[in-house]
Amino acid sequence: MPIAVDIDVMLARRKMSVGELADRVGITPANLAVLKNGRAKAVRFATLAALCEVLDCQPGDLLRWEAEEAAEAGEAEGAGEAEGAADV
Fold first, then answer.
1. Rounded to an integer, what distance in angstroms lies between the CA atom of residue 18 and that of residue 9?
2. What is the pTM of this model?
3. What 3-state DSSP class applies to 88?
4. What is the DSSP letter of 5?
5. Beta pairing class for 3-5 and 63-65
6. Residue 87 DSSP class
């Protein structure tokens, strides 16, 4: 998928754990992991807004578009992972 998720970057900048972020946003750590690892098929605007509020950032700090070639290379690296989907 050509949309890359940079939640890890913002977590590191804010020195916040995944568990703390999930708790403050109001989603399960499992659903946050699906989103964080780029396996989500959709994200609700309410969830995106809550992430931005908690992390004090803009949506563009969390999501970015990558060209298909770069995205395919990243997907090939994770080909051994189980595929999951969540509407978080």
1. 12
2. 0.76
3. coil
4. E
5. antiparallel
6. B
**C-alpha dihedral (25, 45, 87, 61), degrees to nearest 10:** -70
> In angstroms, rounded to a whole number, what is the distance separating the alpha carbons of residues 75 and 18?
22
Q: How many CB atoms lie within 10 A of CB 52?
A: 17
Write down the pLDDT at residue 85. Answer: 60
Residue 37 has which token pair? 């690892």
The predicted-structure confidence for 5-56, as pLDDT tens digits, reads as follows 999 999 999 999 999 999 999 999 999 999 999 999 999 999 999 999 999 9
Angle at 34 between CA 81 and CA 17, to 5 degrees: 115
Distance CA 64, CA 59 (A): 9
Residue reference for tokens 């992972």? 81
Q: How far is CA 9 from the centre of its chain?
A: 10
Tokens for 32? Answer: 């946050």
